[in-house]
Write a structure and sequence with these properties.
The complex is a heterodimer.
Chain A: H1 16-42, H2 64-68, H3 71-83, H4 87-100, E1 113-115, E2 121-123, H5 124-132, H6 140-157, E3 161-167, H7 170-173, H8 180-183, H9 187-190, H10 195-204, E4 210-212, H11 213-220, H12 237-252, E5 266-272, H13 280-285, E6 298-303, E7 312-319, H14 322-333, E8 336-343, E9 347-354, E10 364-368, H15 371-375, H16 378-381, E11 385-391, H17 402-409
Parallel strand pairs in A: 3-4, 3-11, 7-8, 7-11
Antiparallel strand pairs in A: 1-2, 5-6, 8-9, 9-10
Helix pairs in contact in A: 6-10, 6-17, 12-14
Chain B: H1 6-22, H2 28-41, H3 47-63, H4 67-70, H5 73-110, H6 127-143, H7 152-160, H8 162-165, H9 173-181, H10 187-220, H11 228-259, H12 277-283, H13 286-297, H14 307-325, H15 329-348, H16 360-379, H17 383-394, H18 411-424, H19 426-430, H20 447-472
Helix pairs in contact in B: 1-2, 2-7, 3-5, 3-6, 3-7, 5-6, 7-9, 10-11, 10-18, 10-20, 11-16, 11-17, 11-18, 13-14, 14-15, 15-16, 16-17
Classes of the chains: A alpha/beta, B mainly alpha.
């Protein structure tokens, strides 16, 4: 065999120790790559779980065409980045290094989370809205308010209570915990009304029922109890319960028959470990351990002992993720009934309220059904209560088009004796869970639907 | 495919090495060639035909360049000319046609004429490097310094061998001709190669990429918003970035080659400790310098011509070297800048001014400063942008609205800057030039322990370098937003 002239020559017989060290090293290197390779293709050895939703990635398919037009190659890297063995372990380790050594949020500039002071975390989307203060185009806020008022009138004609609940942004309620550069807005920016403020002003000019929880939270904040958790992006359970108290009060004041029952209201709070969404940003950071400040206790609502009514309610909710904590709050009251939540007016969640008080709900994920299916959904049509819940940063989405679509679908429809939005009743055997027998408020369900 | 990608590290490389090591010795060239063609075709499969067809032409011509084959030198020279012109024509077309048409259209616009309609030509990856290797083959065979490849597959492997295919080092044919026939690869080669691969990967992912944040921000700053301090910081970051990026890639190529039994020559040797421009070019992109010397400077006359002619030739060599880096006037100016200082350095470097005798405390900073200024032309998008940046370096361009660069306060970038400085100037700090290799010879004290330590370091560096690649593809939401 030819050897390169520059090549150092090694003795022919290395010592046993050296040979063993080399053998062990080669085996170790090979094993590391083999394990990663196996993890990629088979999921074994197991990986650390990663929190947070990610966009779908196409599975690369190798064909002559996909190879030559480059689509296979373009799909491999993102697929591998998503499925590489021990990816979770790697990402959690990287996050640990970034937060402990460099004091930076995982993901750096790409991170969706900002680390504030005292361990408070903020989702960047909310901070961006705070600093940019995007507004409606002229006349748009008034048009949306009028749309909501008309939807409320339609609901009332269907004997259905309706309200809009505008959830506050953590960055607006607790700017003092934001990183210094985002804390104080320049006076000219702070003086601008954002879309939420424009909508509230417009709603005040209408008969529409709404709750501006941002104003509530700013007032309640002075009581000295946290309304958002340091480690979460959503209102904490105490804040959500109080928001429910307020919106339920608004709903009860509406002309539906029979009137909505009274629910147990919040009387105080206790401190306990974070629950569910209280730590959603901590989980999103995917650290091996929560950062300093992320482990503190958070307030939890205490409700009056008044038993919930025997009424059985069908509640339809549409909106963003703030509604999940609101469903928890409903479960805590001990009310009976069902909640159908149309997440971003695209995805269906369902929760049975059994009449037994529970700390939190666990809505069943019924999958993505699409916007049109939501508009025509029987659960929306047959509800006793329709609640539109959105965070202030989503104000410009105009309820993701749902109010407009419901008005359009029911255009020209006069009041009907039966409850509903003009959706034809479903045939027998077709999705039995959707065939409500009850035609009025608190009439109960048919046999299949008994709780 | 790039080395610093998950696809290469965790898909292509393990499969290729497994197939290579498991194959019998006589089949290894075939495995390496198949893997190299897949590597080249990754993302641009149609260019494989350009590569293979061009190589076939070279191979056929190469057979006619052997002195014994055709006897008459004139005939061999004619074949050589055909080969060189063919290869250079391909390079000119793919790399410089767009640039040429742009310049022509600019002239036509000045003359008030309609611009030439032109569909932009896509650049085959690595064409600058493999064209030089093809030239090296033809010239080496013509000169008789190497025998022509025994078969087409072996020649194609020389050109397409994936470790050095797309970014060098530019391997001269006579350096690897015998290795293409047979080579040995023992456990030490595989482990030392893996270490070198890990070192290069770490240079790229852990140093060059964080440094690029600062450099990119500095060079992207709007005119008048960059203070002198920030401009120098950005330029220094770029100097380190390009060094670790390029030398890291060379380290990976050398390491990969060694894992397969190939020994490539070093491409970088602490260039920023140079005491003059001549020395800089002996330490920076050594394989390009060697190529230019052997295949351009010496044929132009080398040191055998008059000093004036020699200086002119030197300058032309660097001008062309600049143009080889990219089709832009910036690279031409960069090459001219280096050529100018090379000539000046040669003038200075008489017996009494030997670079080695220059005081490091003066010569190193001056040389580094000249290199830094050259990088402005290399990095800026256009000549006016380079001029703007040079103004920013003087502090004359900044206005009251000068904004700090976010990367200057990013501890990761600053850590990379600190570590990078330590590594780039290591010989000055420790008083000797550390070896680029980590070879553990048998029989030396503590050999077994050092082998295990090297393996641990290799795995740690590969693991750490993978983390940014994983994070780059991970940006989750709490919930999906529709």
């Amino acid at each position: 065999m030819h050897r390169h002239p520059d090549r150092p020559t090694a003795p022919r017989n290395p010592s046993r120790g050296v040979a063993l060290a080399r053998g062990f090293s080669l085996a170790g290197l090979a094993a590391a790559f083999i394990l990663v390779f196996c993890g990629t293709w088979s999921g074994f050895p197991p990986d650390a779980h990663l929190s947070g939703a990610e966009r779908q990635v196409k599975v690369p398919r190798l064909t002559a065409r996909s190879w030559f037009d480059g689509t296979f190659v373009a799909a491999v890297e993102p697929w591998l980045a998503r499925n590489l063995g021990w990816r979770g372990i790697g990402i959690r380790t990287a996050n640990l290094i970034n937060t402990t050594i460099f004091r930076r949020p995982p993901g750096g500039a790409n991170s969706t989370v900002l680390v504030g002071t005292d361990g408070w975390l903020f989702e960047k989307a909310y901070v961006r809205e705070r600093t940019r203060r995007p507004a409606f185009k002229p006349g748009e806020a008034e048009a949306f308010a009028e749309e909501l008022e008309r939807l409320q009138q339609l609901c009332h004609r269907r004997n259905m209570a309706f309200a809009v609940l505008i959830a506050p942004s953590k960055a607006e309620i607790y700017p003092e915990y934001l990183p210094a550069q985002y804390r104080n807005l320049p006076p000219e920016v702070a003086a601008q009304s954002n879309a939420c403020q424009q909508l509230v002003a417009a709603l005040q000019e209408t008969e529409g029922a709404y709750v501006d929880a941002r104003a509530d939270f700013l007032a309640w904040k002075r009581e000295g109890v946290d309304l958002f958790p340091p480690g979460g992006t959503h209102w904490n359970h105490y804040g959500a319960q109080r928001a429910l108290d307020h919106v339920w009060q608004v709903l009860r004041g509406q002309p539906v028959s029979p009137a909505l029952p009274r629910l147990p209201v919040t009387t105080g709070h206790c401190m306990r470990s974070p629950l569910g969404t209280d730590n959603d940003l901590v989980h999103l950071l995917n650290l091996w351990t929560a950062p300093k400040g992320g482990r503190r206790q958070v307030p939890f609502p205490l409700l009056e002992e008044t038993p919930a009514t025997n009424a059985v309610l069908r509640i339809a909710m549409a909106g963003d993720s703030f509604a999940f904590t609101l469903i928890d709050a409903l479960a805590r009251t001990g009310i009976r009934g069902e909640v159908d939540f149309f997440f971003y007016c695209r995805h269906h969640y369902h929760e049975r309220l059994t009449g037994v008080r529970r700390e939190h709900a666990e809505p069943e994920d019924l999958g993505s059904i699409g916007f049109d299916a939501v508009v025509a959904h029987p659960r929306l049509a047959e509800a006793d209560v329709l609640l539109l819940v959105f965070n202030e940063i989503h104000t410009r989405q105009r309820g993701w088009g749902l109010p407009a679509a419901l008005l359009e679908t029911n255009k020209g429809v006069a009041s009907k004796p039966a409850r509903g939005m003009g959706v034809p009743p479903m045939k027998h055997g077709q999705a039995a869970r959707a065939t409500y027998a009850g035609k009025g408020f608190c009439k109960g369900f048919n046999e299949e639907e008994k709780l | 495919m790039v080395f610093s990608s998950l696809t290469f590290l965790y898909l292509f490389l393990p499969l290729t090495l497994a197939a290579y090591y498991l194959a019998p010795a006589r089949a290894r060239n075939g495995v390496a060639l198949a893997a190299s063609l897949v590597f080249f075709a990754w993302g641009a499969p149609r260019f494989v035909l350009v590569l293979v067809a061009g190589c076939l032409l070279d191979y056929v011509i190469g057979q006619r360049l052997v002195p014994e084959a055709t006897g008459a030198t004139a005939g061999r020279r004619r074949w050589l000319t055909i080969g060189l012109v063919g290869n250079l024509a391909l390079l000119l077309y793919f790399k410089y046609a767009n640039f040429g048409v742009e310049q022509l259209n600019a002239l036509l616009a000045l003359a008030g004429r309609e611009p030439l309609a032109w569909t932009r030509v896509a650049l085959p990856i690595g064409i600058s490097f493999f064209t030089f290797q093809k030239i090296s083959y033809l010239v080496d065979v013509f000169r008789g310094t190497a025998q022509p490849a025994a078969n087409f597959g072996r020649y194609l492997l020389y050109i397409a061998l994936f470790p050095q295919l797309i970014a060098g080092p530019i391997v001269r044919y006579h350096d690897v001709a015998t290795q293409l026939e047979s080579r040995q690869c023992d456990a030490e080669d595989r482990l030392a190669g893996a270490w070198r691969l890990a070192l290069g990967l770490a240079k790229k992912c852990l140093l060059a990429n964080p440094l690029a944040l600062l450099a990119d921000q500095a060079f992207a700053a709007a005119p008048g918003t960059l203070g002198a301090g920030a401009a120098w910081a950005g330029l220094y970051a770029y100097a380190l970035q390009i060094y670790f990026d390029f030398s890291g890639y060379s380290d990976m190529a050398i390491g990969l080659g060694r894992m397969m039994g190939f020994r490539f020559l070093e491409n970088f040797d602490f260039p920023y400790i140079s005491r003059g421009m001549v020395e800089f070019w002996r330490r920076w992109h050594i394989s390009l310098g060697n190529f230019m010397r052997d295949y351009l400077y010496i044929p132009l006359g080398g040191n055998r011509v008059s000093p004036a002619r020699r200086n002119f030739n030197l300058w032309v060599v660097f001008l062309l070297s600049g143009l080889w880096h990219g089709a832009s006037w910036n690279f031409v100016v960069w090459g001219a800048w280096h050529g100018l200082w090379i000539v000046a350095d040669k003038k200075l470097a008489g017996p009494r001014h030997a670079p080695r005798k220059r005081p490091a405390v003066l010569a190193v900073p001056v040389t580094f400063l000249l290199v830094l200024i050259g990088w402005v032309f290399f990095r800026a998008e256009t000549l006016p942008a380079a001029a703007t940046y040079l103004r920013a370096l003087t502090g004359l361009a900044a206005t009251a609205a000068a904004t700090p660069l976010p990367a200057l306060t990013d501890p990761r970038t600053m850590t990379a800057m600190l570590l990078g400085t330590g590594l780039a100037f290591a010989p000055l700090l420790i008083g000797r030039e550390p070896s680029h290799e980590w070879t553990v010879a048998d029989g030396t004290p503590g050999a077994a322990g050092r082998i295990l330590l090297r393996t641990a370091a290799t795995m740690t560096l590969i693991g750490l370098s993978t983390l940014p690649l994983l994070l780059g593809g991970f940006n989750p939401f709490i919930y999906f937003r529709f």
